[in-house]
Amino acid sequence: MNWTAESHAVPLCDGMSMPVIGLGTYADPRTTPKESAYRAVKVAIETGYRHIDGALVYFNEHEVGQAIRDKIADGTVKREDIFYCGKLWNTFHPPELVRPALERTLKTLQLEYVDLYIIELPTAFKPGDNFYPKDEQGKYIYHDTDLCATWEALEACKDAGLAKSLGVSNFNKRQLELILNKPGLKHKPVSNQVECHPYYTQPKLLEYCRQKEIVIVGYSPLGTCRDASWVNLTCPPLLEDELLVSLAKKYNKTAAQLALRFNVQRGVVVIPKSFSPPRVRENFQIFDFCISEEDMKAIEGLNKNIRFVELLMWADHPEYPFHDDY
């Protein structure tokens, strides 16, 4: 684990590798100024980030792709230096829609392939042009999910060279086992992207995934925004935690840097989202210190087993993942 700002990738079970810190690019398209994602990705690549996490449903992949292409064009990076993760949205789970969805992402990015393509959620929605389909009563319209059939369509995308690696997001143990135990499995999931931070440390899922050689990618590693429509506001703001703040002073770091380093030292890849250039740079400064074993245990003790991102609006979906213990 002698990572540096220049070299900090973890091996994946398919022979590829993934940088341990990436830039998250989710933002509410209704309130985010145009070009925000473009500028943030450019700054990130200039800072040393080589892992960019995006999704079709973020509605900004055109900006993200432009930034990546511009940094390739000016000689800062080559395409093979960049690790881009794209996501299959809930309305594209039927096998015949998987490749067209990935091709749509590639066309938007104007790239030949993604490095990782993941199923964003195990919860399928009614296919169609509306990403959030609802009936006349305002209730979400779901779709029967056959996660194994969806996975087989992803495998075909990898075989066609459109994605280097395949993974999942927000899958619980049962849903992971559906894939892992699938008859004729060709390509294992290399990663599972889930919420992970000092208030929600995911010890059981982390241990299970370690045994299966699946890397945990932690989203919301600094907590999350306080949007009451989808965030659990009973959980206090993570970065104001007294222990984190005091330990950050000890290491001459910020609480955010400490929270990120904590996850990375546990083998969890982190994808903090920020569109603020100073914050993007600050979040990357986690390779010049190491948290002691004693302090790691103290931070682990902060675990509250409370999610910020509960997605309760979909809790009645048959494949809603968070009813299970892990």
UniProtKB/TrEMBL annotation:
Give the PROSITE patterns listed for this entry: ALDOKETO_REDUCTASE_1 (PS00798), ALDOKETO_REDUCTASE_2 (PS00062)
Q: What Gene3D superfamilies does this protein map onto?
A: NADP-dependent oxidoreductase domain
Query: Could you say which residues are annotated as the site Lowers pKa of active site Tyr?
Result: K87
Q: Where does substrate bind?
A: H143
Xref: CDD domains: AKR_AKR1D1-3
NADP-dependent oxidoreductase domain mapped to chain residues: 21-303
Active-site residues, as the UniProt record annotates them = Y58 (proton donor)
Q: Which InterPro entries does the protein's record reference?
A: AKR, AKR1D1, Aldo/ket_reductase_CS, NAD(P)_OxRdtase_dom_sf, NADP_OxRdtase_dom
Output the SUPFAM superfamilies linked to this UniProt entry.
Answer: NAD(P)-linked oxidoreductase
Q: One biological process GO term for this chain?
A: bile acid biosynthetic process
Q: Name one GO molecular function term.
A: Delta4-3-oxosteroid 5beta-reductase activity
Tell me which family the UniProt entry assigns to this protein.
Belongs to the aldo/keto reductase family.
Give the protein name, as stated in the record. Answer: 3-oxo-5-beta-steroid 4-dehydrogenase-like
